[in-house]
Amino acid sequence: MLRRIRLDGELFGQMVRAGHQELRRRRDEINSLNVFPVPDGDTGTNMYLSYSAGVEQIHRLPPDAPLGRMAHALSSGLLIGARGNSGVILSQLFRGFHLSWQDAVEVDAAQFAQAFTRGAEVAYKAVSRPVEGTMLTVMRKAAQAGEDSAAKPGAEIGDVVLALWRGAQAALLDTPNLLPVLRQAGVVDSGAKGLTCILEGFLRGVRGEEGADPDASGAEIYVAPEPVTAQSAADTSVEGEYGYCTEFVIRGASSARESDVRHALDPLGDSLIVVAADDIVRVHIHTGRPGQALERALGFGSLSRIKIDNMTEQQHAFTLVSPAGPGAAFHARGAETLPGSADVHRPAGLIAVAAGEGLARLFLQAGADRVVSGDRGERPSAEAIVDAVAGIGADRVFILPDHDTAPAVAQAAAELGTNRLVTVSTATVGERLAAALAFSPTAAPAENTAQMRAAASRVVSASVAPAAGGVTLAGAPVKPGEFVVFSGEEAVFATADRLAALGEALARLCGETREICTVLCAREEDVRAAAEVVDRLRVKHADVDFEVLYGGQPEYDFLLAGE
To answer: Most buried residue, 76, 320, 351, 510, by most Cβ within 10 Å?
Structure first.
């Protein structure tokens, strides 16, 4: 192992990225362990998406940024992007890092261990009713192991990381002894497992073993070993309704109001987490009265990033979709698939056509069972679509095709019977992603169709692409070498500066009232440059939540979607 006496921003970024890779690789294994507090199979996904939001903020900084700036970027991104119990708790662990290192350029082993301890303390305080045997317990015990290691003469950063990981591993194995619902299901805590995966990545990062992005290899990226079955998880649940997982951000509410928000919402449910940073308060609660929770929260400020999930429906879908757990591998190219089985029957399944590896991952995260490659020159055939449908055991299979795939979909529908395959037509990638997010595997066909079309209709799209033959602007042909801004399919602006074209497209898209604006980049190396363009617009459009993501799409340098 390389000697690492002190931790600076560059090394911390390397550790964080390696933790991200490990969490991505293991997320469905983590999902399969999800028993507490609701067996809905989403802990790994929530932790991965939450952590991804923090990593995105780090990617916006130069690699040699000071440690304090790195910690702040990770903490703020995690808090805004936090999803679920596990995501919010994870954000608080790294908030402790930020609070400990605000002005630091680098720290020693003892200061690193102290930051982890502070993060565990902050996480405990954020949870209204902490439960032992969860990731909170594992944080606390790992922190103690890290402190013990740092107290030894000559301790290095790698020594502390190794102690943290070993302490977390030991505490993870003990979680079934502390939480009966885990012992009954024969599993360890899912959130705690996610934390140990991140620390395993930290260990690889500090050792200089940070590898290539596993999702970009094109090969099978994992097979979860002996996953716990969804049915065993379901058997541990109580009878009746689970209520609604309700999450939102209160803007304009200072940290001084954190306790007031907690007091107002505590009677409405459980799993309440309320955390404040700067001028926002992030709230997570499981409640049977989400409307009342939102109404009370409005008394403290304006609301954004509202997300309400029916946990009873999620748990039912998890039980139906994955009875064998996520043991089936999925691939980064071609016909991608999330866990599922043709032998399992459920009301509805979802297939998306996507051009680009990044887009394929986004559709899988949005809820698609399979993503069929739609790369230029390799449009999926009717046979490929029929095969994809055959891999999903459902009464109806909804498909979100792109424009060029429509003939193949029509042919596949004729072969399968129109009642089996339901096409939801959309004009843009942004509309398809919105439709995928609105899809429900347990809803009736008419309800699903209406929800998906309504979601797609709220999206306004734009794009930036190199000038091609035949493109005209104000009646004149666009010069070769210029980049064209399209509003929908209409060319509205052209310039030789690609990033200036992106700025113009964003300005036009945000000219009307928008809550969310997403930028999809064709190349991974463009993500940071696009994020810098977005940062300049935040001053004027402070109420818009911007996201910059890798899409990998052909033809278009940038795809934009506003809602």
So the answer is: 351
CA angle 419, 420, 426 (to 5 degrees): 85
pLDDT 10s digits, 403-425: 777 777 777 777 776 667 888 88
What is the domain partition of the chain in residue ranges?
A: 6-215, 329-457, 460-562
Kindly give, in sequence order, each residue whose CB lies less than 8 Å from that of residue 234, ignoring residues fewer than 6 positions away: 39, 315, 318, 319
Task: Please enumerate in sequence order all residues whose Cβ is within 8 A of that of 553, keeping only pairs 6 or more positions apart, or say none.
Answer: 355, 356, 358, 359, 429, 520, 522, 559
Whole-angstrom distance, CA of residue 260 vs CA of residue 67: 33
pLDDT, tens only, 231-267: 333 333 333 355 777 888 887 665 556 778 888 888 8
Q: Angle between the 157-178 and 135-150 helix axes, to the nearest 10 degrees?
A: 150
Q: Are strands 460-466 and 558-562 parallel, antiparallel or unpaired?
A: antiparallel
What does residue 105 show for φ and ψ, rounded to 5 degrees? -95, -40
Fold of 460-562: Hypothetical Protein Tm841; Chain: A;domain 3 (3.30.1180)
DSSP for residue 405: G
Cα separation, 405 vs 400, in Å, equals 10
Quick one: angle between helices 84-100 and 135-150, nearest 10?
30
Residue (of 269, 276, 271, 267) closest to 249 by Cα position: 276
Q: What is the pLDDT of residues 514-523, one digit of tens each?
A: 778 889 998 8
Residue 232 buriedness (CB in 10 A; 0-12 / 13-18 / 19+): middle
Work out the burial of residue 179: count CB atoms within 10 Å of its CB; fewer than 13 is exposed, 13-18 middle, 19 or more buried.
Answer: buried
Query: Into which CATH architecture does domain 329-457 fall?
Result: 3-Layer(aba) Sandwich (3.40)
Q: 269-277 and 280-287 as β-strands: parallel, antiparallel, unpaired?
A: antiparallel
- Which residue(s) pair with 549 in the sheet? 520
Residues with Cβ within 8 Å of residue 344, at least 6 apart in sequence = 320, 321, 323, 393
Q: Given the structure tokens 């459902």, which residue do they identify?
A: 394
User: 329-457 and 460-562 share one CATH topology?
Assistant: no
Residue 255 and residue 210: Cα distance in Å, rounded? 37
Q: What is the amino acid identity at position 175? A: T
What amino acid is encoded at 20 in this protein? H
Task: Indicate left, alpha or beta for 64 from its phi (over 0: left) and psi (-120 to 50: alpha).
Answer: alpha
Tell me the whole-structure pTM to 2 decimals. 0.51
Q: Which tokens sit at 148? A: 């013990």
Cα–Cα dist 495/499, whole Å: 9
Tokens representing residue 482 in the block: 């210029």
Fold of 6-215: 1.25.40
Higher pLDDT, 81 or 198: 198
Rounded to whole angstroms, the Cα distance separating 157 from 134 reads 26
* Distance between CA atoms of residues 266 and 280, nearest Å: 19
